[in-house]
């Protein structure tokens, strides 16, 4: 019997220790779960902030890249327009020079013929007038 009491005394604290151990394990598991949940929330908030920051940074960089690309395209277009205009001006000058040469050849010839015709007509009229004046003077 004494042994029984001794065993009962030894088993009661062991049961109490088992209960306390189980309770401690449960509390520890709850604490770990709570800590894990808070850490996950903190990491999610941190990831959200970082994602927003990186997205804003990317938008600024994209805008800058687009702006510089647009400016470069504008400069290239201006250079191409200048080259095209220069080519057009050279071609127009060449065509104008050809047309002026043709005009001088044809128009100049016509003017020369008209001049010669007018000169001959004036000389005939002058001769007629001269003859008329001589006739009047003789009369």
If you had to describe this structure to a student in words, what would you say it looks like?
- With 139 residues, this protein is an all-alpha fold.
- The protein has one domain.
- The chain has one helix and no strands.
- The protein starts with a helix and ends with a helix.
- The relative contact order is 0.03.
- The mean pLDDT is 86.
Sum up the overall morphology in one term.
Answer: rod-shaped
Termini distance?
A: 196 Å
Poorly predicted residue ranges? none
Q: What portion of the residues fall into strands of 2 or more residues?
A: under 5%
The helix/strand class is mainly alpha
Task: Characterize the biggest β-sheet.
Answer: none
Q: What's the SSE pattern? A: H
Strand segment tally: 0
Write a brief structural summary.
The chain is mostly helical. Helices cover 99% and strands 0% of the residues.
SSE layout:
Layout: H1 2-138
Essential attributes:
single chain, 139 residues, mainly alpha, 1 helix
